Amino acid sequence: MSMVISLFDKFLFPPPPSMFITTMSVISLVSLANSGLSELRGKHLGYSKFWNADSQNKPVKKESTKLSSRTGMLLLYTPAFLAGAISFWLCPNHDFRFLLVNSAVTFHFFKRVFEVLFVHKYSGGMVLDSAIVISLSYTLSAVSMIYNQHLMQGIPDPQIDLKLVGGAVFLVGIVGNFYHHCILSNLRGKSDKGYKIPTGGLFGLVICPHYLFEILIFVGISLMSQTLYPIAFTAGTACYLTGRSYATRKWYLSKFENFPKHIKALVPFVF
Fold first, then answer.
1. How far, in Å, CA of 68 to CA of 172, rounded?
2. Sign of dihedral through CA atoms 155, 81, 107, 92?
3. Neighbours of 200 (CB within 10 A)
4. What SS3 class is residue 127?
5. Each residue's pLDDT tens digit, 216-242
6. pLDDT over 90 percentage in the chain
7. Rounded CA gap, 188 and 29, in Å?
8. Do 87 and 66 form a contact (C-beta atoms < 8 A)?
9. DSSP string covering 53-97
């Protein structure tokens, strides 16, 4: 056990003495992992292909408040982006690692807002309840990552410094995620609201490569930070997107008789 602890000490900062960060680490991991299990069981958050279905895949109740997809997506990402942008003003004199993590978090959510406004094409809607839950999750995660990094100021770096490796992984995730979002957008014409089997990029191997690259985005942030909270959030996000990708592949199989069976959900040749 002491050897394992010593190995972690070489890669990670010590946990900050913050009840908030400790609590958020547990909440992020458990809640996101539970959401992933819910997706596997058929209980979907109400957006994208599953926006109009509840846990039994029945139509959403009439009293549920529905939003347009564009409005719902803006609600998802804008608060987290603003939290990141404001933190540059609140914490102007921090070290390079803080600047790197803060910039990555803020740019990720800026990219998502940009895609909502200028890239994505929409066919459905979003249930307000799901939008609020996801928006709160993203905003709290952004605030927690930035505050967590703020608490690391003045603490010596781990023996093995991974922040530049993390920056490279983050860029691969950002580019790959954006590229596959553009492929999905280009599947539809201006008046086309139907779904098609996507092709190009890694879509020939997995149905959700954009999820795979989103996981890489947060892996990159975790490597930049080298602290436990981003790792906990990344692990939870991987669990959720694993469940969501499984549900998405199952949806494609049910909708398209000619869906290629060799295409996996998330990881090429594996899952």
1. 31
2. negative
3. 14
4. strand
5. 999 999 999 999 999 999 999 999 999
6. 70
7. 35
8. no
9. B-TTSPBPPTTS-EEEHHHHHHHHHHHHHHHHHHHHHH--S--HH
Output 9 or 112, whichever has higher pLDDT. 112
Tokens 């740019």, residue located: 107
126's enclosing H/E stretch is: strand 125-127
The SS3 of residue 206 is strand
Residue 189 CA to residue 92 CA, distance in Å, equals 44
Question: In 10 A of CB 96, how many CB atoms?
Answer: 8
Give me the residue label for tokens 């799901």: 130
Q: Rounded distance, CA 189 to CA 104, Å?
A: 32
Of 171, 166, 160, 71, the residue nearest 124 (C-alpha) = 71
Is the separation of the CB atoms in 212 and 177 below 8 Å?
A: no
The closest alpha carbon to 173, from 260, 94, 104, belongs to: 104
Q: Do you know the residue count of the chain?
A: 271
| Of 4-13, 90-99, 101-110, 177-186, the least confident | 4-13
Residue 57 phi, psi (nearest 5): 60, 30
Residue 194 gets the label, from left (phi > 0), alpha (psi -120 to 50) or beta, of beta
Distance (Å, whole) CA 142 – CA 148? 10
Report the alpha-carbon distance of residue 98 to residue 147 in Å, rounded.
10
Structure tokens at 7: 């190995």
Whether this prediction's pTM lies above 0.85 is answered by yes
